[in-house]
Write the C-alpha cells for this entry.
Amino acid sequence: MSKKKASQARGCTRNFNARVAAGFGRTAMLVALLFLIAGGSGTAFAQGHLAVDLGHPVYSVIETAELRGVVTRLSSVKPYTSQQVAELLAQMLGHMEAFSPSEQALIQHYAKEFKAGKGVEQALWQDAAGTARAGIRVEATTRFGVGGLVDLMDGSGSTALKDLWHINSRWVPYLAGEPLPWLSMKGEAGFTFDKIEKNLYLPYEFTKEWDATHIWFGNPRNSDGTLDYPTASYDIREDIAAETDSGSLMVRLSRFRRDWGIGSGSFSLSGTARPFVGFEMAFRPSKLFAISGLVGSLTNWEKGENEKSTAMSGGVYTALSYQKMLGLQRMELFPFDWLTISATSTLVGAKRFELGYFSPLLFSVMYQNQLADVDNLGVQVDGQILVPRIGKFYASFYADEMEITNLSELFTKARNMFALQGGAKIPLPGLPFTILTAQYTKIEPFVYSHYPTWYPDYRLRVDTSYTQDGENLGYYLPPNSDEFLVNLEAMPAPGWRVALKYRFVRHGDNPQADWNAGLPEIYGDVNKYMDYNQLYAYNKNFLHDGIYDYNHIGTINVSWKPTQPPKLLGASIPFELSTGYGLSYTWREDGTGAGRPVSAPQWKNVLTISMKLFL
C-alpha cells in the first residue's frame, strides 16, 4: 500500500548500514537461541521439534478429532512440530470412544510413530543414542495427457508424443539430529530430474518443485525444464527448531511450505506458496491465545539475466529488484472451545534489517506508519465457529488496500483491493476420518499486485508484489477470480486415502499485450499493478470488465501406504503409491461486449502416478 518515495542514501552510508544490520541480525538470532538454551530443559523424544510436512495424513486425523470436539483451540499456523502432533494424538488416545475401531487403530499407529519421533521416515543410519541420523527420500510424479494419447492411438491426434508426458522427481538425501533435547535440526539437499509440461496441469494447478534453472549437457545448456527430455535441477530444504517442553515457545529457522489460515488455502500464506527461508517465533503461553511471527527472504531465480547489473530493464526492474523480504504477524484468540478469532498482518518490502519486523507483537500494518509507509502491506481477519459433530464454519477477509469511503462504493472502487472466503467443514459418518469441505473464495482485482517501489538505501526499484519465486504467496488463484470448491477426503481403510474435489473457477484479465500501467484496465495478474494516477478511471465489474475464462475442474486421487512396511535385509522400507485423474473444461468470453477474439473451448484429461520412498 506504499504511496511515497524516500530519498536515496549515500553509497558509503548505505554499505556501512548494511554491514551493521547484518551483524546485528546475526546477534539477534544468537540471543534468541541462547534464550532457549537457558529456558529449555528436560527430555524430549527424538527429532520431536521438526516440522511435519503439510501433506502428511495425520493432519486429516487431527482435523477430524477437532470436528468431533476431542481437541479444540488449535492454532492454524502450520506445519506443526512432531511434538505438537504427538501431544494431540495423546489427547485422542484418552477419548477413544469418539472414534470407530478402524479409526482407533490408525490413531494408535500414528501415536507410536510420533512418540518415536520419526514420522514416516526410516533412517538408513542412526547413532546408538538416536540423536543423529541420515537417510534419503525419493519422490516421483508422472503425468500423461490421456485425451492426446487416445487421439494418437486412433490416428486423429495432432499433439506429438513428447508433449504428452511429464515427470518431476526429487532425490533427497538428508541429515538430521538432536544435539540437545530442546533442539532439532534437519537439512535436505534434494536433486531433481524433470521433464516439465505445464500443459499437463489442470487450470491454476501448476507450481514449481525445484529451486533453480535446469541444466544438462546438450544445447541449450540451461532451461526452465520445459524441454523434450529430462534435465536436472535441485531443491533444498532445512528445519532448525528449538522448543520448550511445554510448547509455549518455539523458534525456527527453516525452508519449506507453510500454511497460515483456517480454510482450504490462506490469503496471507498458503500451502501452495513456494518455500522460502524464514525465521519464525511462536508463543502459546495460554490456551486462550497464540502469537506467531515470521520474517522471510524472497527471490525469483527466473530473473537471472544481468543479475549483477543495476541497469534497469524498461526503466523498471533488474534481476536484483526481485530480492525482497516477507513479514508476517498473526494473533489467534480462543475465548471459548467453539470460537476462534484471528488477525494477520502481511508485508513485502526490500531486504533490510528492520527491528519492528522481527517482533511478532508489532503488527506491520500499524508499525509502517512510523516508517513513512514504504512497503506493500495487507491485513487478514478470520473467524471460526466449531459445533462438535456438526462441523466448523469459518470466514476470512483480506484487505490489501482499502480507502475509507461511502458504504455504497466501499466494495466497488478498484482501489479497494480485498479478498473474502467463507466455508464449512463437516465430518461425515460411516467412513473413517471423512471430511466434506464446501468453500467460496473471491479475490478482487489488483490484490497481491504492487507497483515497483523506491527505497532510501537502494539505487533501483524493488518488486513488492506478494510473490515468491514468481508464484503467489497467498491463495493460489490470481486476482480478479472467484472459486466454488467442494472437497471430500476419507481414509476408508488402514493405509488408504481417497480425495474427490470439484472446483468452478472464473477469472478475468485483459491481454498481456494490452497491459500498460498508464491504461485504466482491470487486470487479473499479480504482475499487473494499478496506476495511481488514474484511480478513478478503473471500472471494476466482475464478469464484465475483461476476457474471462470459466473452468469446471474435477479430480480424484487415491493413495496407499502400507501400515506394515515391507522389509529388505531386515530394514523396513516405508513407501507410498498414489494415482489421480483430473478432468477440466474451459471456455472464454469477452465480458466487455467488445467482441475480442477468444481461444476455443478446451478439455484436459490428465492421469498422474506418484511414488514416495522413505529411507
User: Anything to note?
Assistant: Residues 11-39 form the longest helix (29 residues). The first strand starts at residue 77 and ends at 78. Confidence is low (pLDDT under 50) at residues 1-46.
